[in-house]
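Researcher: We're reviewing a set of sequences before deciding which ones to prioritize for further study. For each one, I'd like a predicted 3D structure that I can look through quickly. This is Scarecrow-like protein 3. If possible, include the structure in token form so it fits the rest of the review sheet.
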Amino acid sequence: MHAVQTMDPGSQCHLQGPKGMNWDEEGIRIINLLNECATFTESGNFIGADIALYHLSHLVSPDGDSMQRVATYFTEALACCQMTKNLRGVPKVLRLVRTLSTPEQQLVKQLFFDFYPFLKIAHTVSNQTIIEAMQGETVINVLDLSPSNADQWTNLMQGLRERLTNTPYLKITVTAIHEKKEVLEQMGLHLKVEAERLHFHFQFNPVVSSLESLDPETLPIKKGEPLAISCVLQLHSLLAANDDEMVKMRGQRVFAEMLVKQKNKKVKPSPDSALSPFSPCPSHKMECFLNGLWRLQPKVMVIIEQESNVNGLSLTERVSKALNFYSTLFDCLEASTSRTLVGRSLLEKMLLGEEIKNIVACEGVERKERHEKLETWIPRLELAGFGRVPISSNGIWLATKLLQSYVPGYHIHHKNKFLFICWEKIPLFSISAWKF
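Model: Here's the predicted structure for Scarecrow-like protein 3, in token form for your review sheet.
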């Protein structure tokens, strides 16, 4: 990963041209200009922010090296942030015009799946953990809170057929949640074909809903039947809240800490999250949702989340921490993919770039990309009543084997029953398993 360094904020070298600089110096200059622009924007110094954006415009490029590419989208996000503060209507209109269609959304999700090993690893580990939790069961329910394609569940069915050869009757019910009906229809058809091929009794329950509008207890899931829940890179969106109102809830911080200490003295408050149970802004929506999932009594629930912390109230903090996370993701692509590949550019612009913009330029309920580290998810889930489940050792072995087909740099780290997918020792995604 590119070393993120700082220089004297008052140094005039920030405003000098890049001529004569080597790449490292230019990269440091870009980082400092981005941080300066965020500081100026947050303090209301829009002239200073505009000057920083002007100089950034001569240094960044969507077709350059990984730092130039990631900085392109941070520069765009900071420019949008300035418009948001000065011209409230313009950014909203631009977002309406640039909203991705459903096929485009599916395309960029598939590109993320293809270019990175993260989702393949997550699916492999999740499926093995589910298979082991369902050993001996003849009826299995799966609740998918973040469906993008049917591959995970076709692979699960194949794995179940291999492991449960002595179980002639096996019924699988998949309940999937998505805002788009057409995505669910396509998924259902694909799964039905695979279930028939493998001779499973199969039922598909499509639920057209956003995650934030969902009441888990209204789902068509039979109480008492074995249930597995999967949520991939979606749970953090429930942390979206009216930040101004949430700040008023600071008094709940001490109370939340006292509750956790009474429940489990081993849990220590983490100051690294703006909306953790220990933060000034606990999320009531998240608390209700997790309580609803707990009442479904799952045998296993697997959660995959970004191992980053971009949910601070401060713009400068969000820019700094998001830059660390996303510059690493761009480094992964730089090491494995040609700069001229169209798919790479589409992925960077339409998915990673849009996430960066949401983190930097959006506030309140519009800011959905509120990644938090696993250390803040642990007490939140334990407060809801969930207990930890070890990640499947066979899943870890398969994931390690899978990584051998990728460029050197990727590896997995197993710690305290949890799994982290890393690039050059930097954790990028966490996998955790829980039970009722």
